[in-house]
Structures are given as structure tokens and as C-alpha cells.
# Entry
Amino acid sequence: MKVLLVTEHTADDRKSLAAVRSLARNGVNVAVASDTSICPPLWSRYCKSRVRCPDPLSDWANFSDWICQQVLQGQYDLVLPLSDYPTMALVEQQSTLTERMALPIPPAEFCALAHDKLELIRLASKIGIDVPQTWCPANREDVKVFSRSVSFPCVLKLRKGAGASGLSFPQSPEELLECYDKLGGASDSVFSTDRPLIQEYIPGQIHDACMLFNHGEPRASFTQKRLAMYPRTGGVGIYNQSTDQPELREQAESLLRALNWHGPAMVEFKRDDRDGKFKLMEINARYWGTLDLAIQAGVNFPWLACRMAIDGDIDPVTHYQVGLTYRWNWTYGFQYVLQSDRKLQALREFYQPAVNTQSEFSFSDPVPHLVAAISNTGSL
# Structure
């Protein structure tokens, strides 16, 4: 099997690195495409060939045409998008692509709904999933009006976006306006600063339900909780633990069934400290940064997605190692410590001795970590 993994450059592209390693170990001939050579998975010993693609941020039309050509040319058995931009490009043009290749990506209309956090919250509430109270201001004056009803701290987030981009936790009406004014920026197919959301702040830990669906039916599931995040106030998981949360899994499955989902997704919840209920945060319509934890625990999502696409279906996978912890030391752990006001405490929190703990560093595949360190030099 020959597979092309498509990503765009991030300073620490850990999910793509995890996918390259896991697929190659299953006998797949893996090529990796990125818009820059400073992308860690390109330098893995498991990457058989490197491909340069257009930059999706500066030349979306050219990138979209390029990735579609990779499907249509038939050089690969499967093209697997690993991040937001390649996923969106394939989703938008899947009507012309699926006759040539079975792509594990969601239907366009439902992907668009999942990407719109306001519409997603409305759907979730309709089918009985708890959600935070949410406001959608049309302009700055609306922000002032809504600030009278909001409890602080609150959450300001992009209505359409991914990761921690545009996320803030204002502590007062004045700070809410400041954060709103700072959003600005241009919008594209993945991020939009138009009409951001104000949400009730949910105190509690973040739990994720990671899923693989085959045309509306679950084929693999895995739950985890975030023990540490970067930034600390709310962001990507950098110290996670595998869990077994049937309630979390059931809610994620009911939501993805309603969306007739196909392919991978991570459904993010917070467990509210006030009532113990899971509250929906968002859906990531692609592979997630902490992918390697699921792989090491026994749910090899990239390999399962490849088999599902090539063979048409797979047997459901729901059993895995529970209680496995995973730390992303290189370079998130360093950033977590260095950007903390209490560095010694942060060092103890993140690097505390723990049994049954793994990390992404590999002595047999070290070059990607050196590339990640070089990419992160400016932010350390």
C-alpha cells in the first residue's frame, strides 16, 4: 500500500509524525507532503519520500487543485489529510474525487456544520447533549450588551476555527472588549474572525472522545483526559491519559451519527465540576494532536482508516490500554515550563515520575525532534 500524508507546516507536527511511524510499521510505503521543508515528519526515517505542496494559507486555490490532482493521478492508493487545510480541500471537492478514491473524510454539508461551532451547539442541544450557554455577537455593540448577561471569566472563541487560535478567557467586560478588538485578521476556509462566540466558562477537566466512523457508524473509539495543556489556561493536550468513559463515548457517537460522519474526528467535552456533566466544546474534523497516545494504547487510527478506505469496512475496535499516560516533552514540555510563572512547580507537575508513561521521543528516529526544536527556537 502506498499512502500520501498531507499536512501543512506547524512548529511541532506531532500527529503527522505519529501517523508516519505507525503506518510504516504496518508495512505501508509512506510519502509526506508539506509546504515547507522545516516540518518534522518529513525527516522521519519512516518517510519514504518527501513532496512539496503549495502553501494553503497564501495560495488556497493552488493548494486545493494540487491535492485533488494527487487523488486523480492515481499514484497513491490513498491520500490521507492530517490537518485542517488538506481535510477541507478534499471535503470541498470530494464529489469529483470519490469515484477515483475512497477517502475517509466527512460529507461536505456535515463537515461544514461541525466546523461552525454555533450550529454544532444547536444540533447537540437538540439531541440532548449538554452545552455551555452561548452568545453570538454581530458587532462590538452586541458584545457590550451581552457582557451584562455573561458571568466572568467567560470564553471568547472563533465561531469557525481550530485548536487554540483566537481563544481567550476574559476576566471582565472591559477585557472581553479588548479581546474582541484584537481578533481582527483575514478569514479563510478554516478560520473566520467574523461573529466570534462568547461562552459560559465551564470549570473542569477536558475529556476527548476520539472516533473513526464509516458512513454514520462507529468503527473505532478511544477516550482520554488532558492532565496538562499548552497554554496552561486552555489549549492543546501535552500530558494526557487514556480513559474508559462510556458516557463520553455514547454522546460522541450520537452526535457523529446525527452528522452521518465518515472518517476520523475528535469530540471535545469538559466535565463540569459543578454538576459532573459532560458539556460539548467542539469537534475537530480531522486527526488530533495527541494521536500517538491512542496508537500506543492500541487503537491505530491511521492504519484503521487506511484499511477501512481500501477494504470498505473494518471490524469495530473499542478495547485498548486504559491508564496509559503520554507526555509530549519535545518541545511542548519545555515550553510549558519556561513560560510558567512558577517554573519549579511546573517542572514538578509535568515531569513528575509516573509508571506506565510514554513520550514521543524516539532514539531510533531522532531527526524529527531536532527539526521541531529548530522550528520552535523563536517561541522558546
In short: The longest strand covers residues 217-230. The chain is about 35% helix and 20% strand.
